[in-house]
Amino acid sequence: xxxxxVLATELLKLRRCKVTWFSFAxxxxxxxxxxxxxxxxxxxxxxxxxxxxxxxxDLSGVEATWPSYLSTxxxxxxxxxxxxxxxxxxxxxxxxxxxxxxxxxxxxxIGRHWFVLAKLLVAALWWALLVAGVIAETLIIGLALGLxxxxxxxxxxxxxxxxxxxxxxxxxSPLVAWIATLGRGYLAPLGFALAMLVLAQVFGKTGWAPWxxxxxxxxxxxxxxxxxxxxxxxxxxxVLLAFIAGIGATIAQLxxxxxxx
Amino acid sequence: xxxxxxITTRALTKHYGEVTAVDALDLHVRRGEIYGFLGxxxxxxxxTIRMLLGLIRASDGEAEVLGRRVxxxxxxxxxxxxxLVESASAYPNLTVRENLAIQRRLTGSPHCAVAxxxxxxxxxxxxxxxxxxxxLGNRQRLSLARALLHRPELLILDEPANGLDPAGIVEVRELxxxxxxxxxxxxxxxxxxxxxxxxxxxxxxxxxEGRLLExxxxxxxxxxxxxxxxxxxxxxxxxxxxxxAAGFDRLERVDGEIHVFGAEERRAEIARTLVGAGLELTExxxxxxxxxxxxxxxxxxxx
Lengths: 261, 303
Prior knowledge:
Low-confidence stretches of chain B: none
CATH class of the largest domain in chain B: Alpha Beta
Mean pLDDT of chain B: 89
Helix content of chain A: over 70%
Low-confidence stretches of chain A: none
Distance between the termini of chain B: 39 Å
Number of domains of chain B: 2
CATH superfamily of the largest domain in chain B: P-loop containing nucleotide triphosphate hydrolases
Strand content of chain A: under 5%
Oligomer: heterodimer
Order of helices and strands of chain B: EEEHEEEHHHEHEHEEHEHEEHEH
Structural class of chain A: mainly alpha
CATH topology of the largest domain in chain B: Rossmann fold
Number of domains of chain A: 1
Distance between the termini of chain A: 29 Å
Number of helices of chain B: 10
Shape of chain B: elongated
Largest interface: A-B, 29 and 35 residues
Structural class of chain B: alpha/beta
CATH architecture of the largest domain in chain B: 3-Layer(aba) Sandwich
Mean pLDDT of chain A: 89
Helix content of chain B: 25-40%
Radius of gyration of chain B: 24 Å
Shape of chain A: globular
Number of strands of chain A: 0
């Protein structure tokens, strides 16, 4: 009952919230941008007419096929998603400090962990809707472009990878929530997310890639070389550990630390 | 800790590094009373309130609210507490009604509580307006409505008059009085404005540099309004000797003047004594020291 009430209020807080629309707009640019590259690659003459954009599209080495389209989208959902979901989670948690409402929540006769769990569930729902929307957009654009190589196996494999990487990205978000409650503002969590993206690239090129949570995403989506075939069980364990640690740290931060605004 | 206490603190202390914000504070707020917590800016009022509400941890000592010890993460004590800490705050994208609906849900209050709180704080005309578009005064009203919505037994209010116009201040004062007198609500209200607290509180605790300097009831506060005769004279030392010899034994020498206490009706006698001895009087006036002066004197400020 308590959790349901807290969750209902967390959803109500998103009413008239421009950030939700911004996040949809930001992620929906991914399939559009990839589709544009595909279209240019399929028409080299037009690519040449487009000058720099055409050259870049050629240089990217993208094939105008369904497997390539879905694979690039996995990269966008993985690396772009790390940043976008960090933005969403930072908004959900840090807004309470920025808008001065954290003190109102923390003096309620409700366990503070419920707020953490409800906000993370809202982030999960938000992220799931974003990814679902992007998948639908991808299918529509891909079919409209008439890309070759569409089969049930390709589609299933591509969607599996997108959903998998979206899930891994989500599992890393509680650490951003912790930084947001620690920093009591938007800057710290977004800075943290950016720093992790950089470190993901650095560690991704070393032997630590399977052990550094953000590099696991980078390796899987191929942002640090050829994509790895699958996320290993040990890497999953690392991500799961990061998820649990993030939730635990956020709850502990709200429960035991000084909460000033 | 006694059963009639709404708030009790024992040696409550908060350090921030080397700074002691609250220093061994012993408070005892009785149920049903209005307790004014008075102090200048930075005296430790808000830090104390934050500790009472479990927003920050005490470095030492303990606090009890409505019979329950305040401990990190233990929220049950706050089921019957309404509060307003520092500035008014609300979700700017939500309307007044929606902001209160959040509080209603989270406190398990009935649906009618939102409309009641809106009516109580006279926010009917703003109920569908987004909180981000409210004036400072109306945001403060919204915060008070949120604090009152679940009909708390104890109200902890940090500078509740902030942003309110004079009519609003009177309205809130009357509301708090009525809550205390008619509904037995205990009100713990902090302020740096003595006149505001003096008009409202049954008892006043004065905090300065983290320490509770004095705790007094309203009658005693009134008694502290000092009256004295100020005597300006070229030779204050000789004048003091003459006045003492004439039976004026409560004298204070301040900046070349003499303050004679208990002599409001004996001003003519003072004049005769000094002029008769050949001293030239430059001033002879009755001074009534107001409560603000008393407060400033107590906390080490001017005058």
